[in-house]
Design brief:
Shape: globular
Order of helices and strands: EEEHEHEEEHEHHEHEHHEEEEHH
Number of strands: 14
CATH superfamily: Ribokinase
Strand content: 15-25%
Largest sheet: 7 strands, parallel
Distance between the termini: 25 Å
Number of domains: 1
Radius of gyration: 17 Å
Structural class: alpha/beta
Number of helices: 10
Oligomer: single chain
């Protein structure tokens, strides 16, 4: 199985279970990392947590999922971020965040980061998202992009959260810099049209491939995805979701898992749809394996 390094911010997650709130964990690249580890890959998560009890517990829970936590650094004064999920009657989710001073924002400023980056360079695949870039200060973004430039293979998800950015010009510049270094691109059409006005999946694919990302899969929500050859791959069946949190992250994991095992892009997309479909029928961004 492949050695994969996923980079980003893993957070505490509050999700509603009937009349109660349950404390779990999640984060876009962390969700993908856990799915990939469950599929049998050698997955390390590169981030920073605090030394507080919640951070210690998070790290232990990730290890229990099969994640290699040797690249999770400990910040001496900061803690893990927190978010809460609320869903409407159709299962569509929205998030409230408390992450402005999270430890992950300074992951590349800690003294151990040089050794951490050296280990990440040797991975078969490095995976990160636009959210990863958003939480980092400019120096951290440059260090992450330098890692991507030296990595063997890179997958990038253009996951856009406007509140994490100062303006769209800054966001587009960071996104395009990452696209140019990516081998596999996993944009979502809704994010792309919000950020830079692409009218359809074809325009998104042209933009990403034009910058050098040869394998671009454009996610289209319930409609499926546009494959690198331009054809549409739809899910096998229409579902009535319980919670759409983590759907795109699960699709990414299913797609990457299948591609790393030699599947075609079409078969990989079907695997992505199946994993995303399982995820949205359960509450939380990363449902327990046994559910």
């Amino acid at each position: 199985m492949a050695r994969i390094v996923c980079i980003g911010e893993g957070m505490l997650e509050l999700s509603r279970r009937e009349n109660d709130w349950q404390l779990d964990y999640g984060g876009d690249t962390l969700n993908t990392a856990i799915h990939l580890a469950r599929a049998g890959h050698d997955v390390a998560y590169l981030t920073a947590l605090g030394a507080d009890p919640f951070s210690v517990e998070l790290k232990a829970q990730w290890r229990a999922e099969g994640i290699d936590t040797s690249l999770v650094l400990t910040h001496p004064t900061r803690q893990a971020g927190l978010y809460a999920i609320t869903t409407d009657a159709a299962g569509e989710r929205s998030f409230t965040y408390w992450r402005d001073t999270s430890a992950a924002r300074e992951m590349f400023a800690l003294p151990e980061s040089d050794a951490m980056l050296a280990q990440a360079e040797r991975a078969d695949l490095v995976y990160f998202s636009l959210i990863t870039l958003a939480i980092l200060p400019p120096e951290g973004r440059q260090r992450l992009l330098a890692l991507a430039a030296s990595a063997r293979r890179v997958a990038f998800d253009g996951n856009y959260r406007p509140r994490l950015w100062q303006n769209q010009a800054e966001t587009r510049a960071a996104r395009d810099a990452a696209i140019a270094l990516a081998d596999i691109g996993l944009p979502t059409w809704e994010d792309e049209t919000t950020l830079s006005g692409e009218p359809d999946a074809e325009a998104v694919a042209r933009h990403w491939t034009g910058l050098g990302c040869s394998e671009t899969v454009v996610k289209l929500g319930a409609e499926g995805c546009r494959l690198p050859n331009g054809t549409l791959c739809a899910p096998e069946r229409v579902l009535q979701p319980v919670d759409t949190s983590g759907a795109g992250d699960a699709f990414n994991a299913g797609y990457l898992d299948a591609r790393l095992k030699g599947a075609s892009p079409a078969d990989a997309a079907r695997a992505g749809h199946a994993l995303a479909g399982w995820t949205i029928m359960l509450p939380g961004a990363i449902p327990p394996r046994e559910s």
